[in-house]
Amino acid sequence: MILRAFLFLIVVWTLPAMGPWQDCEGAKACDLDGRSYHIRVPDDWDGDTALPVLLHFHGWGRQGDLIVKHQRISGHTRRRGVLLIAPNGRGRTWDFWDQGSADVPFAAAVIEDVAKRFPIDRDQIFVSGYSYGAAMAWRFACENGDGVTGLLAVSGTLRQTERCPQAPKHIRHVHGFADTVMDFPMGAGGDVTHPVALWRKALGCAAGRRLPEWQVVSFLSFERWHWDNCEGGHTVTLDLHSGGHFIPHGWIGWQLDQLMGRVPLYP
Question: Could you say which protein family the record assigns here (predicted)?
């Protein structure tokens, strides 16, 4: 009798850590209508609290299994109570060049499928990506962004002449001047703010302002431009650095902290 009671208590105590997600968490992909995605549950989740979400699009030639173990991505989400979702692109890439991409409804369906497995916080849905994945994140935000809290794009954009019927509440983009993979989209006359010209026009932003330089790690500093005068309470933020094509240390976590009203920390 004592043994049975003890085993019952073990089962009860472990219930919060169990759920319908266990069959495809981490490196094992979750299947969805012939396609797939990966998830990473945050550390110390109680199994009940609604989770903020970061939907991250991988770079060219990659898959979501890399994202859920990437220290500059999942290393930040898992410490912040954020559920990381990493969809897999067909052929290890994304169709973002033109409107009507099948990857947009697929990614939207991924979020809804995740919502069947987890309690998610619809007021804190963030979309990010790196390189080709950043351009895909832009495409998703452009066509399905009205319910997105923040776009966090790293070293990849759409053409700034695109027309976007939807937009996230907050747009944050980071790009290096020395990027030779997804070249820095310099504007006419050396306009360094051109990488976010699309959003500034679409959201009716007035003149921006340059904020003091900031840094997460000692070896990389950012020049920050910010527009908080856009229509409907939207904001646009652009971080620039002297480096090339990479995800800056701590950048994703820093943005999540700020947009969720927390003191920014590293990592």
Answer: Belongs to the faeC family.
In a domain, 15, yes or no: no
Question: What pLDDT is attached to residue 21?
Answer: 63
User: Does residue 188 form part of some domain?
Assistant: yes
The total of other beta-carbon atoms located within 10 Å of residue 120's CB is 19
Phi first, then psi: what are they for 174, rounded to 5°?
-130, 140
Rounded distance between C-alpha atoms, residue 50 and residue 48, angstroms: 6
Rounded to the nearest 5 percent, the helix, strand and coil shares of the chain are 30, 25, 45
**In-domain check, residue 267:** no
Count of other CB atoms within 10 angstroms of residue 31? 11
Q: Using one digit for the tens of pLDDT, what is the confidence trace for 223-244?
A: 999 999 999 999 999 999 999 9
Domain annotation covers residue 12 = no
pLDDT tens-digit map of 23-41: 899 999 999 999 999 999 9
Count how many domains the chain has. 1
User: Which residue type is seen at 256?
Assistant: L
A 10 A CB-CB count for 70 gives 21
Q: Taking the CB of residue 181, how many other CB atoms lie within 10 A of it? A: 14
Q: Which two tokens stand for residue 77?
A: 């989400």
Q: How many angstroms separate the CA atoms of 63 and 43, rounded?
A: 22
Instruction: Specify the amino acid at residue 236.
Output: V
DSSP string across 64-80? HHHHTT-TTTHHHHTTT
More confident residue, 8 or 166: 166
Structural domain containing residue 162: 23-259
